[in-house]
Amino acid sequence: MGPVTTPGPFLSTTYNSSVPSPPPNSGNSTTNNVGFNNKGLEVVAGRPRRIVTTFGELTVRRRMYRRKGTGEPVFLLDEALGLEKRKRLSPRMRELAVELGTETTFRRAAKVLSRLVPGVSAMGVWDEVKAAGERAAVEAEALCSAVFERGVVPEGGMELPRFGGHRQALVFRL
Length: 174
Fold this sequence. Notes:
Elements: E1 3-6, E2 13-16, E3 41-53, E4 56-67, E5 73-74, H1 76-81, H2 91-103, H3 106-116, H4 122-148, E6 162-163, E7 166-167
Antiparallel strand pairs: 1-2, 3-4, 4-5, 6-7
Helix pairs in contact: 2-3, 2-4, 3-4
């Protein structure tokens, strides 16, 4: 099939509907073209998924695999794109939702994000801020444990100024 042209009111877009054939495999039947070892997985079906991205809402069709030993379903495309289970927002949209949700109210953050792409609610922003807070709490707990229990000294990011040939300490009275 050749190129397909779709006329529009302001511009026409040409899509090439022919998909190039993948390169021949190197003889190893358990490795696909991108180097993924699919030994232990079997293709079950294709499933659609709707994702809210900074470009708008997209529907992608991805393959569902099942682990041969456990029968657990696996979506390799979701893992490659960093998509969490049962979350509609892309990683970049989650990042924007957290940033706006911590700066203003959840309703206002959802309103601003909905001007970019539809489908973002105040509860969705709240959910992302809550998840980010839980991740930050786990990271803070691990850092505190490393410093106070194991004695690990964290790397400093600020150079102290030199006065008179030696470094000065900064003292804050609380």
